[in-house]
Each structure stands twice: as structure tokens, then as C-alpha cells.
Amino acid sequence: MPIDTFQVTPQISLGARRAPRPPRSLISQAGTQKAVLTWSGPEDNRGVDGWRVFVDDDLQVFATIHDPATRKTEIPISASGSRFAAVSSFTRISKTKFIESARIPIVLTANTDKFVVTGTGGETSGVSPSSPPEYSSEPEGGRGDREIL
After folding, report:
1. What's the pLDDT tens digit per position in 42-92?
2. What element of type H or E holds 124?
């Protein structure tokens, strides 16, 4: 997956610009060899230009989402496995510089389903997790999926 390269200025004020508030209410829904990660925007979402999703540690950028209304992504996970993830919001201060919020951590898990190739003794279509019921009722919209730019 492509990774955006840009300079992040964490948690400080740069002139009149301040770090945006972090995302809230991170939820993981387990699926077959993946988890759907959703989150809510901050109550005060002024200055939020997008999201950064980190996987395995808080330095491995999995996705940079440049649409603040997109608050959902799928993370691959081995069957019955788990992975660390974190989400932050960012404010763009120039074409290559951003101010980032605190990173909010969560542990993601997959269910126990495994894919089996047809003709080898069994098969399953697996389970694709859905978004949590409250996801679409959030004021930020909750209608978009991850888009890596």
C-alpha cells in the first residue's frame, strides 16, 4: 500500500494553528482475516483535514485519509490474530506539512474463520464485518470508506 510522505508537527501550536482534537469512539468489528476499524470525529472538528491510521506500532502509517468524513478502514489480520492500531486527526498547514493530534490506540482482532481453497477438503466464503449500527448516525456522516491518496 502506498504511504504518504509528509512532515508532521505533533501536538504544538504553529502560529495561529493548533493541533486538531483527536478522534474518539474507536470501534473494531472482527471479520475473516480482517477487522473493520471505525471512529468518530472530535466533537469540535474545526481544523480536521483528515486522518492517519497506524498499524503494528505508532510509526507504521497504514493509511492517510484526506477526507474528514471518511472514518472507516479495513485492516488485514491473520485468522484469530490481533494487531495494534491507532488513529489521529491532522490539520494541513502547507502542501507537505501537517499538525497531528494525539494518536488514539486500539487492539484489533479477527474472528476464527479461515479461507480454504475449494477442492481441498472444505471451503468458506468468510465473513466481512459490517460497520457498527451507530456509525452512520454520527454527525460527521460516516458514509465513506478509506481512500489512500
Report:
1. 998 888 999 999 999 888 899 999 999 999 999 999 877 899 999 999 999
2. none
DSSP element (H, E) containing 69: none
Cell of 86: 491507532
Q: How far apart are CA 91 and CA 82, in angstroms?
A: 30
Going from the N-terminus, what domains does the chain have, and what CATH number goes with each? 7-126 (2.60.40.10)
- Does the global pTM surpass 0.85? no
Give residue 133's region: left, alpha or beta (phi > 0; psi -120 to 50).
Answer: alpha
End-to-end CA distance of the chain: 10
Q: Using DSSP, state whether 119 is helix, strand or coil.
A: coil
What torsion do the CA atoms of 7, 63, 102, 69 make, to the nearest 10 degrees? 110
Nearest to 108 by CA among 147, 52, 63, 53: 53
